[in-house]
Write a structure and sequence with these properties.
266 residues, 2 domains, Cobalt-precorrin-4 Transmethylase, domain 1, five-stranded parallel β-sheet, five-stranded mixed β-sheet, 9 helices, Methyltransferase, Cobalt-precorrin-4 Transmethylase, Domain 2, alpha/beta, 21% strand
């Protein structure tokens, strides 16, 4: 008789941001298939489990999805509690549908345990809401990534339609993202935030404007990165410009000696 496979959200990285249900399942797990970016402090909660890394990172060795699916199905026939531990939330850019479909086709029960996604953790860390009354009433979670054989990605359309945009897996394409959005009509002066290692001790954040996005993203040091765009970050971008933190020859948002912002064309 097959066990249940639990697709568990590991959250943004900090162990104390795991849900109670996730921590309890890790403690019970016989085997854990985990993403590459799940911190050791989280994995240590699965004290009795066999741990198998099945991570997918751009530009590095990745485990084929078909192989992950097979390993989980095989494990479900041998163990009582099988955990597939995914960074953030399993249902957001985690290829959960492929794993759920494969397991259910094999007659294996699946339970999904949500986790805190990076955009929500980042908003909490910065204390800047993704939505703000009268300023932002819509949020889009997008990624520019397109897998081989997949249909064209219309992320730009979604990004233009939303007041606040969270771009996942986009740091290495920051320059192209900036150019595509500007070409599609997004103002060059749109405030942006680049967050790295959200919720972890080494977390960093840089603010600027859309035409500075590539420069801001170049400052990251290899950790997971989230790009955020929207008017809710305007004040932080102005403060960064006042402090001289964005490296841009012609920033679009500067601070005057009175503390008010003025716009300049780039």
């Amino acid at each position: 008789m097959s066990a249940t496979v639990y697709l568990v959200g590991a959250g943004p990285g900090a162990p104390d941001l795991l849900t109670l249900r996730a921590a309890q399942l890790l403690a019970r797990a016989d085997i854990v298939f985990h993403d590459a970016l799940v911190p050791q402090e989280v994995l240590s909660l699965a004290s009795k489990a066999t741990k198998i890394e099945v991570g997918k990172r751009c530009g590095r060795y990745s485990t084929a999805q078909a192989f992950i699916n097979k390993r989980m199905a095989d494990a479900a026939r041998k163990h009582k509690v099988v955990v597939r531990l995914k960074g953030g939330d399993p249902m957001l850019f985690g290829r959960a549908h492929e794993e759920i479909s494969h397991l259910q086709a094999k007659g294996i029960a699946v339970v999904v345990v949500p986790g805190i996604t990076a955009a929500l953790a980042g908003a909490a860390e910065m204390q800047i809401s993704l939505t703000r009354r009268g300023q932002s009433r819509s949020v889009a979670f997008v990624t520019p990534r397109v897998g081989e054989g997949e249909r064209a990605n219309e992320w730009v359309r979604a990004a233009l339609a939303a007041d606040t945009v969270a771009i996942y897996m986009g740091a290495e394409e920051a320059g192209a993202i900036s150019r595509e959005l500007i070409a599609a009509g997004k103002p060059r002066s749109t405030p942006v935030a680049v967050l790295e290692n959200v919720s972890l001790p080494g977390a960093t954040k840089n603010f600027g404007t859309l035409d500075q996005l590539e420069q801001l993203a170049a400052r990251v040091c290899g950790g997971p990165v989230l790009l955020l765009l929207g008017e809710v970050y305007r004040a932080s971008a102005i403060i960064s410009a006042w402090q001289g933190t964005p490296s841009s020859s012609s920033p679009t948002a500067r601070a005057t000696p009175t503390g008010r912002a003025r716009s300049s064309s780039s």
